[in-house]
């Protein structure tokens, strides 16, 4: 990967951030870092008013600003997208198969020859989201029908757009395809999951390693239970106040709890066992069969109090 230059102000951005940046710099000798505390005048010339700041400077004068997660992998993927054109052309089946896996999330259009309006809308979509996903123009499926498909290679999921004609059809398709099976729950996206009517299986972790290990383990289960259950990850340090709210010990570094936003029922997983796929399925079975009663924080001093009976839905 060859870039035109990348700058990062690293003042007040140390620890794992610095380690991630050192990993990124191995990708390309044109990637450099600046400490704005030591290079204040130069950073002022670059109009860097807050930091850390990550920018890609192109030879033609264009500047791309990175606003994603500050992890090595996400920044490297951003760089790869930024130095490519907004869309790729797959003129052969071999290229179609290659570009299917060019990114974490790939959108591919198979337009019939006269569907220039859809092609224009797809190109506009690619320009809007070019730094987040990859977009490919591919050979037609048929002479009479256009198709837009996506490949979520993180979760190994493929979708075909059902609505490619309406104003919001393609935008909604982007949201559908890019939504991870096991997302990280934050205050920003919390309402998105609590308003669906599905229960939420919270997993709490404190390190990226723990989060990624759980995400990889839980993906098959998230597919299996997707109809009525969200699998989510919550940072136990950043959202420590959530732990006692779902029946887990304050200050815990890890934990698992099932929450039903519809009626407020909460089922914390007890014990110090390592959370595995079998542990999760056994836990869910105990809930649905009624063997495990919902925990209620106001009755904690009196022990766990439940409603009795089984639960047809989680």
Automatic annotation (TrEMBL):
Among Pfam families, the record links this protein to:
Thioredoxin (PF00085), Thioredoxin_6 (PF13848)
> What GO biological process terms are annotated to this protein in UniProt?
protein folding; response to endoplasmic reticulum stress
* SUPFAM superfamilies per the UniProt record, alphabetical: Thioredoxin-like
Q: Where is the composition biased (Basic and acidic residues)?
A: 297-314
**What's the domain of life for this entry?**
Eukaryota
Q: Would you name any one GO CC term?
A: endoplasmic reticulum lumen
Q: What is the role of the protein in this entry?
A: Participates in the folding of proteins containing disulfide bonds, may be involved in glycosylation, prolyl hydroxylation and triglyceride transfer.
Name-wise, this protein is Protein disulfide-isomerase
């Amino acid at each position: 990967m060859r870039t035109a230059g990348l700058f990062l102000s690293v003042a007040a951005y140390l620890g794992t951030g610095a380690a991630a940046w050192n990993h990124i710099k191995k990708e390309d000798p044109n990637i450099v870092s600046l400490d704005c505390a030591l290079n204040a005048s130069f950073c002022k010339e670059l109009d860097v008013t807050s930091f850390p700041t990550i920018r890609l400077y192109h030879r033609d004068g264009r500047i791309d600003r990175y606003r994603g997660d500050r992890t090595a992998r996400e920044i490297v993927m951003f760089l790869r997208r930024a130095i490519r054109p907004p869309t790729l052309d797959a003129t052969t089946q071999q290229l179609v198969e290659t570009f299917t896996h060019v990114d974490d999330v790939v959108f591919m259009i198979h337009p019939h020859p006269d569907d220039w309006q859809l092609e224009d809308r797809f190109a506009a979509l690619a320009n809007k989201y070019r730094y987040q996903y990859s977009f490919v123009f591919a050979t037609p499926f048929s002479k009479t029908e256009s198709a837009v498909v996506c490949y979520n290679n993180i979760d190994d999921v493929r979708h075909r757009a059902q609505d490619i004609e309406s104003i919001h059809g393609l935008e909604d398709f982007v949201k559908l395809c890019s939504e991870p099976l096991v997302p990280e729950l934050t205050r920003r996206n919390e309402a998105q999951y609590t308003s669906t009517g599905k229960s939420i299986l919270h997993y709490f972790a404190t390190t990226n390693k723990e989060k990624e290990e759980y995400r990889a383990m839980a993906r098959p289960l998230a597919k299996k239970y997707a109809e009525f259950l969200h699998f989510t990850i919550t940072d136990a340090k950043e959202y420590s106040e959530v732990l006692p709210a779902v029946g887990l010990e304050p200050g815990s570094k890890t934990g698992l709890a099932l929450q039903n936003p519809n009626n407020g029922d909460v089922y914390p997983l007890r014990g110090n066992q390592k959370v595995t796929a079998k542990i999760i399925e056994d836990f869910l079975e105990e809930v649905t069969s009624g063997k495990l009663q919902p925990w209620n924080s106001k009755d904690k001093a009196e022990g766990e109090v439940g409603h009795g009976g089984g639960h047809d839905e989680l």
